[in-house]
Amino acid sequence: MPSAALLRDQIVAHIDTVAFVAHGLHVRIGDDTATHRWVADEREDMHSAAKGICVIAAGIAADEGLIDLDAPVAEYVPGFSFGDGADAVTMRHLLSMTSGIELPWSEDMMTRWPDLAREFFSRPSRGRVFQYSNASTYAAMTVLATRVGDVHDYLVPRLFAPLGIHDVTWDRCPNGRIIAGEGIALCTEELARIGLLIRDSGRWKGAQIVSPQWIDAMHTGWVPAGKNPGYQRYALAGWDGPGPAWRLHGAHGKLLIFIDDVVVTLTAHDHFAADAVVARIVELVAGETAA
After folding, report:
1. pLDDT tens-digit profile of 211-243?
2. How many Å apart are CA 156 and CA 151, to the nearest integer?
3. N-terminal to C-terminal alpha carbon distance within the chain
4. Fewest CB atoms within 10 A around its CB: which of 35, 60, 198, 224?
5. Which of these, 114, 127, 140, 118, lies nearest to 59 by C-alpha position?
6. Distance between CA atoms of 162 and 158, rounded to whole angstroms?
């Protein structure tokens, strides 16, 4: 097995060659770690990598018997109005983007309607059709909040404090709810702790934070998502690929990349070049682990 330092150096050399606007890198192979900084390790929006944290929140609540991810969410929000077929949508559908409810992202989506979740559920569902939407994750966390209270506060003693991640901020909508699918601010090293928890099937320092089934669901039970490489299949917040990898992928290069016992955490501010960098990282990881 190669060292984390060797793999780090190879990734850094590639990133510097292509002038990718990287912020931080954390490489873990087994228990071996190596890091590199291009800028100070300050907290920044993790964008859609936050969706993985939302899945963990739902999984913890399911472990505690507070919610059933396969029950129609209409059972948990009886005061909401539902469009045709939307009353059959489950938490699993929302978190895997298969609600079939169309509500695309926009800069003002959190303020355009009095309540984004109510607007989302009021629209018709086309069945189990993949439709990537931050509104879907937001609606899921709105439902979860009816069972656990404020989702951020719920996670503090159950996830953030055990991982040593303190004073976390998560952007909120005008109704006071976390915006869910983005908006949580973490530094590279803190995101890497989330990555280690995921790699180790929900365990952290001997304690089971969330059941393995919810971690497994991040990269199994894939649903068709499109034709672009690395974006062809989606699970609960996880994208399949490229190659043998799977990943949590936030805009502008906020990444957790998993291949077997290897986790590469990358933060950056370079949206359009991120896919090519991920592909090269996977080539390097796969080459090293095969060596």
Report:
1. 999 999 999 999 999 998 899 999 999 999 999
2. 9
3. 8
4. 224
5. 140
6. 7
Residues 6+ apart with CB under 8 A from 105: 133, 134, 135
Q: What is the DSSP string of the chain?
A: ---HHHHHHHHHHHHHHHT--EEEEEEEETTEEEEEESS----EE-GGGHHHHHHHHHHHHHHTTS--TTSBGGGT-TTS---TTGGG-BHHHHHTT-S-B-----TTTTTSSS-HHHHHHHSPB-SS-----HHHHHHHHHHHHHHHSSHHHHHIIIIITTTT--S-EE-B-TTS-B--SS-EEE-HHHHHHHHHHHHTTTEETTEESS-HHHHHTTSSS-EE--SSTT-SEE-SSPEE-STT-EEEEETTTEEEEEETTEEEEEEES-TTTHHHHHHHHHHHHHHHHH-
Return d(Cα 90, Cα 74) in angstroms, integer: 8
The residue type of 220 is T
What dihedral do alpha carbons 278, 281, 283, 288 form, nearest 10°? -160
Cis geometry, peptide bond prior to residue 72 (ω within 30 degrees of 0)? no
Measuring CA to CA, which residue among 272, 289, 278, 223 is closest to residue 28?
Answer: 289
> Can you read off the two tokens belonging to residue 235?
């699970």
| CB atoms near residue 220 (< 10 Å) | 13
Is residue 90 a contact partner of residue 71, using CB atoms and an 8 Å limit? Answer: yes
User: How many other C-beta atoms are found inside a 10 Å radius of the C-beta of residue 205?
Assistant: 11
In tens, the pLDDT along 107-163 reads 899 999 999 999 999 999 999 999 999 999 999 999 999 999 999 999 999 999 999
Here the tokens at position 45 are: 């929006």
**pTM reported for the whole predicted model:** 0.96
